[in-house]
Amino acid sequence: MNPLLSRLQPYPFERLKQLFAGVTPAANYSPISLGMGEPRHPTPAFIQDALRQNMGGLASYPATAGEPRLREAFAGWLARRYGVVVDAASQVLPVNGSREALFAFAQTVLDPTRPEPTVVCPNPFYQIYEGAAFLAGGQPYYAPSDPARNFAVDWEQVPEAVWARTQLLFVCSPGNPTGAVMPLEEWRKLFELSDRYGFAIASDECYSEIYFRDEAPLGSLQAAVALGRTDFKGLVAFTSLSKRSNVPGLRSGFVAGDAALLKAFLLYRTYHGSAMGPVVQAASIAAWGDESHVEENRRLYREKFAIVTPLVASVMKVALPDAGFYLWAEVPASMGLDDAAFARALYAQYNVTVLPGSYLARASDGHNPGAGRVRMALVADTAECEEAARRIQQFVRHHSA
Fold first, then answer.
1. In this protein, which residues make up the domain named Aminotransferase class I/classII large (predicted)?
2. What does the alpha-carbon distance between residue 322 and residue 5 come to, in Å, rounded to a whole number?
3. Which residue from 177, 313, 328, 399 could staple onto 335, CB 3.0 to 4.6 Å apart?
């Protein structure tokens, strides 16, 4: 067996399953899950129609690079959303969801023969970053986050010796779990570091279309162009239809950026067998070409967060995020519970599932930055999320009395 597999840690939801083992939740409450970030708004009918109307594509092997019309759909969306111009032939590639692509990209760019190949990732973070680093023969470095800035990463705290051996940097903006969006000046700093030390930047932007204020989140390619980096040197952006279009089961997204990196990534993907099926390509073209369903999806989230956030904020320290569909709430010290105990007791007494924040982070300098917080995924309909928030109110008030 591959010895690197032994370095993988249990996934957060496996840990949650173990945490709840032996617990029978109160039968007088229906189950409500705020634990997993799985979009649950209805899939738009026109996307389903595009799938049904293109079933003939099942009879053909797909090209790993995707059909030209698909790549043009990616380029067209980037132009409309960010004002960014890319070459559809060399600067975009289809992927089977951003999770698959983030993992595969690390396998493409890391050179395990170099001393201490390092992958820098935020902390808290999406666990695929860590697993991708381990299985590519690298070592993750967990960049410290700053609670005073909504857990944005403090890049200044990463030692120069770490940057010097870094081969890949994972960035998540809007962030998971906090929803923080990186401003232009932080992108300037990261691009300068990439130029100086020669590492690639993988920018995970799967939450970019769910935001709560008038200004849409800044994208990495958009930042690069604003800073004169029109060749996107060292940068690849990752995005997906899962959250934007409520199609997590479609497994469809794309990457865009540095043509040289994408050429190598295409080679890896060709051997890996990562081609997107023709039926999914057809549905994806339809989805990327329409914004009305995205605007409606965003309206639903805005309505939901406007109702739920004040309810939770009445008993826990939490604020409306910049973007994304999570609330990152602090467990009140008066309850005398850590984040795991909070999640277990809430499940037992009110049948509501939340994810302990410590499961989304790693201890750094003796401190786990997710400890004492829980992540709530507001992915169900508004009524169900409101009911969950009211149960959380009761739970906190009861234990803080």
1. 32-392
2. 36
3. 399
State the Cα–Cα distance between residues 366 and 369, nearest whole angstrom.
Answer: 10
340 in Cβ contact with 16 (< 8 Å): no
Chain centroid to CA 253: how far?
A: 12
**Among candidates 236, 132, 117, which has minimal Cα distance to 167?**
117
pLDDT tens track for 220-266: 999 999 999 999 999 999 999 999 999 999 999 999 999 999 999 99
- Which pair of structure tokens corresponds to residue 181? 């969006």
Domain 59-290, what architecture? 3-Layer(aba) Sandwich (3.40)
Common-topology check for domains 3-42+293-400 and 59-290: no
CA atoms within 13 Å, Cβ hemisphere of 249: 7
Question: Residues near 253 by Cβ (< 8 Å), separated by ≥ 6?
Answer: 94, 95, 96, 97, 98, 101, 206, 238, 239, 240, 241, 242
d(CA 239, CA 285): 14
* Biggest CA-to-CA distance, the chain: 64
Q: How long a stretch of residues is the chain?
A: 401
Q: How confident is the model at residue 96 (pLDDT cuts 50, 70, 90)?
A: very high
Question: How many other C-beta atoms are found inside a 10 Å radius of the C-beta of residue 2?
Answer: 7
Closest Cα partner for 136 from 95, 170, 175? 170
Task: Convert the pLDDT of each residue in 31-55 to its tens digit.
Answer: 999 999 999 999 999 999 999 999 9
Query: Is the Cα torsion angle 318, 322, 327, 330 positive or negative in sign?
Result: negative
The residue behind tokens 């997590």 is 248
- State how far the Cα of 46 lies from the Cα of 87, in Å rounded to an integer: 28
Residues 285 and 69: beta-carbon distance below 8 Å: yes
For 290-336, the pLDDT digits (tens) are 999 999 999 999 999 999 999 999 999 999 999 999 999 999 999 99
- The CA-atom distances, in angstroms, between 272 and each of 60, 103, 136, 200 are 18, 12, 14, 21
CATH number, span 3-42+293-400: 3.90.1150.10
Indicate the helix (H) or strand (E) that contains 122.
strand 118-122
> Alpha carbon 58 to chain centroid distance?
30
DSSP state of 88: T
Element spanning 95, H or E: strand 92-95
The dihedral built from the CA positions of residue 104, 110, 116 and 121, taken in this order, carries a sign that is negative
Count the neighbouring beta carbons within 10 Å of the beta carbon of residue 396.
22
